[in-house]
Amino acid sequence: MKLNPGTYEGCARGYGGRLYVSAEVSEGSILSVKITKHREYRGIAWGLNTTPIESFPGLIVKYQSLNIPPVTGADVTCEAILGAVSAALAAAGASEEDIAALRSAPGPVPPEYEDEVRHVDVVVCGAGAGGLAAAIEVKEAGGDVVIVEKQGVTGGATARSGGKLLGAGTEWQKRQGIYDSENMVYDYLMEVGDRQGKFMDAGKTRYLVDNLNSTIEWLSSIEATVKGDEEEILAMPYQELSRPRRKDGALKTSYHVLDVEAIHKSLQPWRVHNSPGGGGQTNGQGGEISTPLTLYYENDIGGEIIYNTAMQELLTDEYGAVTGVVCRRANGAKLTLYARRGVIIATGGYARNKEMCSRYPVAHYFSNVPCGNVGEGLTAAERIGALNYEHPAVQVVYTSLSCGVGINDESGLIVNSRGERVVNEWTYQYTVSDAIARSGSSCGWYITSGDEPYPTVRYGFAQAVEGKSRDYAADSIEELAVKIKADPAVLKATYERYCELVEKGADEDFGKPAKFLHPIKGPKFAALRLHPCVTVTFGGLDTDLSARVIRPDGSVIPRLYAAGEVAGTGMYGTQYPTCGTSIGSALFYGRIAGRAVMDKKML
Hints:
Structural class: alpha+beta
Helix content: 25-40%
Number of helices: 17
Strand content: 15-25%
Shape: globular
Largest sheet: 8 strands, mixed
């Protein structure tokens, strides 16, 4: 390979947008690689001991190779780094054959593990919010604990989320003039989506609500501890675009809370508490929760995480008590961990398991949770007699992939795949989505002429009219119906009835407030496709107030605990109540599991 000595820039698309690198080269080698700009997610792409933005540049230079094994869970960022370096080398004169050779050149060799047996006090399966919280409590109580995590990074679904927490009458609410209380939050959670009283566990919900604020305070104390450890990381120039800043330009390093918001204007009072840089319906801010927890556990209190290792089987003695767990490393080697005190399952939900989700009426959906969220913790516990409650609902939101319509307050005409209106479109987005799903529809359509007071709708309409998206535009409602494969007569009748209600100024069919009955006048019409997205799954393992896993007869499985989405039974009705519920529950009951397994006083 012959290169023109100098420094060259390269760019490739990552998970959060364009990623830029600067590569310095000599005539025949790569001297340095620096990532100069990116918008990748904290806790997945950067900020941890194992994330690729910290490790890949050095490995590329050390091995003079682009054959660097991806970090499981951060694959897109890994490929973006390699692609950007490839572009920089091409600018330096490398040919396609040169780059292909670098792609196959010897790189780091993954460890060749052999079968191993270890003995510890506690095994935690999963390094998401619940697992990290549990392991921290065990470690701080003096326990010998190890986390097994199937990915190469921590955080699970939390790291990919909007990073929001539920609060009740907090100081941040008071600063914004918002009155709220624990009783009000409790009543809301018990009522929403569970009007028949079939799904919610009053005791577990009350315990959670009474500790929502102390959970935020605990998390803030963790952030305060690791804050000093991060100063060097935060000073690195390539973090410039991915770390939130104050108006004066200083980095925001305090944890919670920047502000409180309504996740939907119809939900009052506002009680969703944002992580730094968060706000609105965003992804990737959850790293502001999982990263401090990971750094605190690994760096500050010396906790151990075994990465790229998946739990497979729970071990029990002749009395049915859990004695350990069998895991598989990436190379297939068996790792058997015997636990003197117990095992805590925090493996997340099952949104990536289409078979498990098939009981809910959404056949074709996408999900932004890790690919490993397939429910192996549920099935492993079920095999030893645990109750695995198959809840009839999941968190589903129908949203546009081209403009984001569906997850904000857009409240125009929404129809199902048959062209029928089935809901008051101004209600909470999960209420809207649940109605679409239960109408037997695999998608929804937002029907508009583009003159509504929502930037997302106007943008989506313009993209459809210009043919720049997979949405549809037409000169008539009937023509639009043909394009979305609905019966023209049905969509025409729905449209005409909606126009009639707009003219009356009263939604006689679903009760939508008059000011949200937006007219659809043409002359152009567009249908913005709303795709179902499943994130949080409901049901799963049932636990008591000490996070102990329960059998179908109500008895406890000795030395088995669970927290987080894997143990969602009793925490949800038929729809997701509000952002911040899942992470808050995982953190709180993770702490409870960690304290219970160590016989430590409960919160």
